[in-house]
Amino acid sequence: MMSKTWQKPLLAVLLVLAIAFPMVAANDYYIYVMSLAYIMAIAAVGLNLILGYTGQLNLAHAGFMAIGAYTVGILTVDYGVPYWVAFVIAGILSAVIGFFAGLLSLRLKGHFFSIFTLCVGFMIYLIIEKSDALTHGTVGIIDIPAPTGIGPIRFDNTWSQYYLVLFFLVVSLWLMSRIVHSLLGRAFVAIRNGEDLAETLGINLMRTKVLAFVLSTFYAGMAGALYAGFVRFIGPAMALESHTFDMIAFILVGGIGTLFGPLLGAILLTWLTQSLQFLQDFRMIVFGPLLILLVMYFPQGLIGYWRERQARRAAASMQDRRLQRSVIGSQQEVSTNA
To answer: How many CA atoms lie within 13 A of 266 on its CB side?
Structure first.
């Protein structure tokens, strides 16, 4: 594992590179794509909390992201609510609906829980598609206003919106770091490793799992709210389970149960998908096998593989030092006897 001495400098370098990206990008389209990758990474970070740290596969995650997006779209377009007020409401509403969905779904375990959440996600999709009066149905919501300015700062161009999304990404990762390294985070991991053992340790399983579900859906709602203000158009397809599977792919490629795995996976797969656009409908023929190979040879994801390699190196180095001390000790003993 990476020495803690180098963690903060490395993160600082990565942040500087992210800040400098628009300055070296060839055009605004690249900035737009990277911004989308950041937004999807925020949603994937939330999914990773319930999947990677708590061990529960929520297949309705895209539905909760759609709830956040539609909350912003409906409130700003139909009712003239300021963007940032709608933004806050979007996160809260997603978390509240996630609370009730979690109370019902988390009574089930394993694949039964996943199947139930798959149904929840499909119900969200149907409600969005069929509620013409509220959600505009299959037409979707267009002309969603961009985030309003804060003081002298305006978000009316790709650059400023990129830095806004980057800001929320950094805050999201920082908050998630605080959560997973806290006592609550250890409770999440204990549940993932074994619910019976976690219960014997005094952890309230239902309450802890529901809290993880709520936090996860809050992240999804916030990502959806950012997406609505950035893309300016949303449709019912946003709630489909295929988008949840995309986020699962981000997590698997980057590293499940790691803080930066979802971010790495979102950036890599988003750019890989964009690079294969010239293949049009045939791009999945290339993308699919590449994803399978990554999962086969890096089952813990890229960050998980790197950590495992560092751990092996550290163990080998420690073994070498022990062997060296043993040899020196033997030589000293021989010299003393002589």
So the answer is: 25
pLDDT digit string, tens, across residues 27-53 = 999 999 999 999 999 999 999 999 999
DSSP string, 129-183: HH-HHHH-GGG-B--PPPPPPBTTB---SHHHHHHHHHHHHHHHHHHHHHHHTSH
Cα torsion through 48, 53, 58, 62, rounded to 10: -20
What is the CATH code of the structural domain delimited by 28-298? 1.10.3470
Torsion of CA 246, 250, 253, 255, to 10 degrees: -140
* Total-model pTM: 0.90
Orientation of helix 261-275 relative to helix 301-337, angle to 10°: 130
- Angle, vertex CA 49, rays to CA 298 and CA 99, nearest 5: 145
Buried b (16+ CB within 10 A) or exposed e, 121-145: bbebbebbbeeeeebbeeebbeebb
Please, what's the largest Cα pairwise distance for the chain?
97
Burial (CB < 10 A; 0-12, 13-18, 19+), residue 170, is middle
Residue 164: C-alpha distances to residues 44, 167, 310 (Å): 18, 5, 34
**What is the C-alpha to C-alpha distance for residues 301 and 201, in angstroms, rounded to an integer?**
30
Q: Taking the CB of residue 320, how many other CB atoms lie within 10 A of it?
A: 10
Give which of 40, 47, 66, 102 is closest to 216, Cα–Cα.
47
pLDDT tens by residue, 234-274: 999 999 998 999 999 999 999 999 999 999 999 999 988 88
- Pairwise CA distance, residues 281 & 288, whole Å: 12
Structure-token pair, residue 150: 């804060």
Kindly give, in sequence order, each residue whose CB lies less than 8 Å from that of residue 108, ignoring residues fewer than 6 positions away. Answer: 116
Length of the chain, please?
A: 338
pLDDT tens-digit readout, 191-225: 999 998 899 989 999 999 999 999 999 999 999 99
